[in-house]
Write a structure and sequence with these properties.
The protein has 4 domains: about 35-120, no CATH class; about 270-395, Beta-Lactamase; about 395-515, Beta-Lactamase, CATH 3.30.450; about 545-774, PPM-type phosphatase domain (Phosphatase 2c, domain 1), CATH 3.60.40. It contains 23 helices and 27 strands. The longest helix has about 45 residues, at about 5-55. It has a 6-stranded antiparallel sheet. The chain is α+β, with helices and mostly antiparallel strands. Keywords: Hydrolase, Transcription, Transcription regulation.
Length: about 775
Amino acid sequence: MSPWRNPSQGRSATIGRLSATIERLRAEIAQAQHAAEGRALIELAKGILVERLRCGPTEAALQLTALAAQAGVSKLELAADLINQAAQDRVAHVARELLLAEGGQSVAVQLREAESGILGAADSQTVAESLLEHALTPLGACSVALWAAGADASLTLVGFAGHSVEEARRWRYVPPGVPTPARRALMERRAMWFTDLGESTLPSIGHRQGVRAGRVAVPAGTGGRILGVLEIGWPEPLEEQPAPIHRQIEALAELCARTLEDHAAQPPHGPDVAELVELADALTDPALVLRPEVDADGQLTDFRIHHANPRFADPAGRPRTQVAGARLLEAYPAAGEEGGLFDNIMHVHATGLAFSADNMILTALIDNVPVTSVAGVSVTRHGDCVLLIWRVQDESLRLANLLQHSQRLGRIGGFEEDAQSGEITWNSQLYELHGLEPGDRPIPLENLREHAHPDDADAIARFLRTVLHHRRPASASLRLRRPDGNVRHIRVVAEPVFDAGNRLLAVRGAHQDVSAQHWTEVALAATRDQLAHSEQQAAERNRLTLQLQHAIMPPTQAGVEAFGLNIAVRYRPAEEGHLVGGDWYDAVVLPSKKVLLSVGDVAGHGIKAATGMVVLRNALRGLATTGAGPAQLMGWLNLVTHNLTDPVTATAICCLYDPETRELRWARAGHLPPVLVRDGVAEEVPLIGGLMLGVISDVEYEESAVRLEPGDTLFMYTDGLVERRDIALERAQEHLLATLKQLDTDLERSLDRILTHSISDTDDDTCLIGVEVL
């Protein structure tokens, strides 16, 4: 062995000794802190005995030792019990609730030690570390984040434990509007439990995409005002927790509210009230300054009307001096309706997030008779006070708004449809445009398709779905067929109107005659086609492809009744004309007197997808004449995809219905399962296995059977009906099932309703088959 020592080995040994020393000192500090917190609880219990037994400190210490020995518990456990009996606070209630559970006594000690650590902490960081060590680690938690809520509903990380410093630095501030578990708890003002945070898609501190972990976020506040959020993480998915654990977590959040008061963005309400009163008096609209009222437990119960400005006008005719000083719910009890004005004021006071609504229904009681009015409302928080401003809209103002909308949207043919009463209002120009007399019944938006050219049905369906279902402004161009035989090119524009609760009040809009403009645009389009020869060739190719597709699958086909079945089909092409797809459907009676029902979707768009669709659809129809079952037909069709000149991949469903037994046998190749509606209940047919066509050549497909009963309705569709970019496919399928529960008795109208209320937004084409058992 060399007598010389390697310098690097010496440095490594020195670093190792220093690391061991640091860890030892950390452990000693933690042990000392734990002992100090325990001594603090014992000293507090001794003080309680001094007060109750009228004895000195020494006698109290001896008495505590003797009582602990008699009870068979430690002095620390007895001290926590004495404190709980004396305090009778929320921690005491939680501890008492847990005493019957295994380890309940130790939990009571942990809660009091956590409280002692919070009260003795110098900052919020120490609070978070104390919470994790004393109260949350025994529950299996691995991390804590303590957020302070800002005046604009932003979140600032003021304490953390179990997270790295780098992670905390990345999450030191969450701007308003960013969805996180803590934001959900702040906005909804309740504890948010996440069994698996990975399933919620909400980002948060310490969470990695695809990692399964439990999480809970609990609001922390006092007097109805949320000061921040306590967020706790578990390393594994969290099982359903019993009610005592829920209340234990909420008690810890209440303890955290004390330390969060130092981080509150607003100053106390006292110095700001005078300035707020001056601000209210300077407004030209009626305004009230409200101050929170809390009960003995610190819970918000009402708001006191601190001041009413000179513009204030009470609906019941009371002077403002009589209203000022009263409680809000006593002066205006109708404001306390669920989701009404009082709930919005409480939300603003709790979160600091301002509220405004252009059309909010306000109700006042005049001689016990409810009188409603529509008003624009604004609610903001200033310190601990709330400023309420409103402007009532009278009937003349509402009519003026209708006229203004008509002029802005087209200056001709204005309309309004009331979503509550169903009443439709047209102006005289709109009657003239439609060729109707002023006394005739107006045409509802939903019936617009019946008065338009058949080729415009798809555009009208998209327009109605956007306005009536998605509730967004939209416009469409159509050819209006008037009763006198004239056809006019019309542009219809509509937008929904909502109240403060996001409920649809009405649909307003206008119809404009753009016939002259239409022919001008046609001429300009022809000129552009001559200047862009390459684009013309592409458009011609797409047009021919679309014609091929429509020749095989018309968008609408007359219903078929055969062998006790009523069959209706719909095909909705892609919204963009160049996205010619490969969706297909088929419904045909075979020589065996069985009925073949199928839908499929060739991957991609364009001429390749369209020609592949034609081949597969016709191949399946020909193969079905052999009498083979659905599984065998799927296997043969898979071989067909591998022998095409241009191989394709596709999904498909093949069903064979036997009219004698009413048995439906089916197989699938990677396609969404059919939906069966029976007795008003819509459910997917149990899923079976089946690889999509064209992936591998040797595939065996499963087959299943279901017996159909009279009154049953079976639906098969392609994914263009349900796919959305912003939500999971499962949620879109749940929406489809909900829509299918409210079907019309007429199958044709049911298919139209399904397409209208589809939430898809991928611009893909869609095939839909409805089969009703008579």
